[in-house]
């Protein structure tokens, strides 16, 4: 692998099988957020780079990939900038669309052979996902930390490109095929076997603009986060899975940067890019020193995490809160355990997250809750929202914000497939609500805000909040609500208090401050 700047040593440990931690000494750790960002903060700190979960979404390099000209190219021969065929939802139906390749890489992993009734054979990692009538499913059930996830079973049907074909993307010599309703599959795309292959195998994958591509005729999900590793001169394949960069000296470097005369003690946010409480933090324990550096310098900060490891540092956070304003945020979309299992498999249960909120508040710290995402027609009734807000208030949350579902590319396709399977009667409504793109219709946002406003007030969760519309007017408002901001009280530090003599000063004096 390429040499890393500041590398101290590379370490492997039994509790992180197959992962190498590259311990580096960083020269700088404060990262500035672009001025146009809608986030209500200007700086972040990330003590880790890479994913210690080591998930992969890869296929055999020989898998034929459908290009926009109707030809097929080996996966290993597809290059960044090529145009391949992906999919997008159009009026409630999935259609084929051209999409650029943003990244391509290879790795070596254990592999599985998926046999289909029509004779097609696909070789993929256990983590790879294919589209079925019941949504995106992995090849194998074993997920991170032993969790079970939706996976292929014998008898499952895979969604084939021939059922979605647009005239512009037909294979040469084949007759036109009209787009099929979501979930339709062609005969023969039925799984007959999923077989483990011995040893490890060379695998490859792509990142595309739509979040998917056509692999040997079936719709295949891509990995979309790996290219974030390349800026460290690490590749986006095997390195992302197995090479985790740990900035050993984050606390010391951060303390030095915070002492610089030019530092103006602006809000520093953690957990908005990589979770500072990922599993590796249990080994390296960098966060206590980071918290002490921020608190000791008079710098306000916030943490977003779903990890219960945060509870370990409650004493440090409590001590820092005596010196500086801090914020802690937790997201919680619903309390129905069955709906949670179907919508958010693999995430902490609603009860576990409510308990996390309670522990944070019992320590005397603020904690804001994001009621997100609200699902139109499923979790947006007055009764459901009021019951959830009642539980959040009972856990002692400082405030709450209610945000409607945001369907980004990739998420959009998965959710529409899930909706077509679980709630087909809502497909047309969602197509209308999200006809303009990723954000729900403005009229729905206004109605949701009008309904939840009195509930937030009644449960004591309204607070002030912070707008998602940027800092000092930067950026477009994107919080999903009209009116109060998208970041609830407790999730970010409160703004500095203006002395009374300034508030009451004449306008000509204010202009000089």
Outline of the structure:
22% of the residues lie in helices and 24% in strands. With 513 residues, the protein is of the alpha/beta class.
Mind explaining what this structure looks like?
The protein has helices at 238-242, 250-259, 281-284, 287-297, 314-321, 337-343, 350-362, 382-394, 411-422, 427-433, 442-458, 500-503, 507-510; strands at 7-11, 20-24, 30-32, 43-45, 48-49, 64-66, 72-74, 83-90, 93-116, 121-124, 129-132, 135-138, 191-208, 212-215, 218-221, 243-247, 268-270, 301-304, 326-331, 368-374, 399-404. By secondary structure, the chain is an alpha/beta fold. It has a domain at 64-166 and 188-221: Beta Complex (Endonuclease - Pi-scei, Chain A, domain 1), CATH 2.170.16. A seven-stranded mixed β-sheet has the order 3-4-17-18-19-20-21. A four-stranded mixed β-sheet has the order 1-2-16-5. Strand 6 (64-66) and strand 7 form a beta hairpin. The chain starts with 6 loop residues before the first strand and ends with a helix.
Oligomeric state of the chains present here: single chain
**How many beta strands in the DSSP annotation?**
21
Query: What gap, in angstroms, lies between the N and C termini?
Result: 53 Å
Provide the low-confidence segments as ranges: 167-172, 174-186, 224-241, 466-485, 498-513
Structural class: alpha/beta
Average predicted local confidence, pLDDT: 78
CATH architecture of the domain at 64-166 and 188-221: Beta Complex
Strand neighbour order, sheet with most strands: 3-4-17-18-19-20-21
If you consult CATH, what is the topology of the domain at 64-166 and 188-221?
Endonuclease - Pi-scei, Chain A, domain 1
Alpha carbon gyration radius: 25 Å
User: Can you tell me the CATH class of the domain at 64-166 and 188-221?
Assistant: Mainly Beta
The CATH homologous superfamily of the domain at 64-166 and 188-221 corresponds to Hedgehog/Intein (Hint) domain
Beta-strand percent range: 15-25%
Q: Number of DSSP helices? A: 13
Mass-distribution shape: globular
